[in-house]
């Protein structure tokens, strides 16, 4: 059969409909997108929608909003209301050793409490952990000694040489009659679910749930890239672990690259705060009424560390951690050191870094020399020229992929946890971070940052300015998408 006039007319009509509908989409999204996003993110979305209206609109409908399902938002609001009076009781119970802060730190502490609803608490002890195998061994030992309950929450959990022993210890604890709960991110730990390990744990008596199940149809599910990025373990309400380690071998399946992380084992009143974060996440996902009495139980004064927990995520009104970081940069007087695997700053963070440098503060930024994500890596490098022009020192870490997320300010304030210094962690992911107050508390972290510096080489402005044109072009294109990454 030949190509008929009717076929020709059909394709002309189809082409006309596509052209008209594409322009309709452009104009409609021009009105909708700016209402839901910051100007920078809105411009990025409108740009990609302008060039590819139909496919990019479908992508936007799937991942373009950081709004959570109404059921989750309602549960979060209900729990915050229930905990309003409880927070006062917890403060009286846990803050009997309220640390005496210098005036320079009072503002940050007050802001952190306003944002995350948790007070600074003294009387804590902590041990920093760099190696994943050490983290696994220490957690297994604590679980094997537990006599009441074990709660675990990890973005990535794998049944390998790191995560496997922890799963087995969790089963042993459950078989001893302990209340054991495991929450894993639905996307980050999808392999664990596919391999049948979650069903095995449930058969062994462990309570298991997946955080933020993803679906294109988002009435009851979150957007695919809206993730629970927290790393958290609580044993008997007495010991807690948090930081940047996922519960997986540090090679993440790579043969030539090792992730360098940092976590901390904590004892003392701050454990109750971390437990509150887990209970909130568990309640929001499952609807199980949390045992809030656990949070008001007295806690032993274990050590000298003053620390404050700052949870963040889309369920909060503001970008908690971003606000705190920016405020600390504005307060910095002498020196700031930042380590992060992914650096995609928003405008306010970029300005805070610039203002700090202009005031004479020495700002050192330690980032991986090699990134594991092509587009994100090039988007991050697109900011290097601007940062170097500001006078910020950039160091490229060569001993694997630096995955520790830390910031120290003037040797007396330290930030540490699961949040990267990028738009995704600040605005889209659920994160958990700690703020440490005082010179002694910050010393251990600055010492580790110093070791990172020794394994890095400084990037100089001339070297970066001489990079090839095609590399600059690729970075520029990636930078356009940075608000969406």
From TrEMBL:
SMART domains, A to Z: PLDc
Main enzyme class: transferase
Location relative to the cell: Cell membrane
Keywords: Cell membrane, Membrane, Repeat, Transferase, Transmembrane, Transmembrane helix
PROSITE patterns reported for this sequence: PLD (PS50035)
Membrane-spanning intervals of the chain: 12-33, 45-68
Annotated GO biological process: cardiolipin biosynthetic process
Matches recorded under Pfam families: PLDc_2
Main subcellular location of this protein, as a coarse class: membrane
Source superkingdom: Bacteria
Domain annotation PLD phosphodiesterase: ranges: 224-251, 398-425
Record-linked InterPro entries: Cardiolipin_synthase, PLD-like_dom, PLipase_D/transphosphatidylase
Presence of the UniProt keyword Transport in the record: no
Recorded GO MF terms: cardiolipin synthase activity
GO cellular component: plasma membrane
Enzyme nomenclature, EC number: 2.7.8.-
PANTHER family, A to Z: CARDIOLIPIN SYNTHASE, PHOSPHOLIPASE D
Listed name of the protein: Cardiolipin synthase
UniProt organism field: Dethiosulfovibrio salsuginis
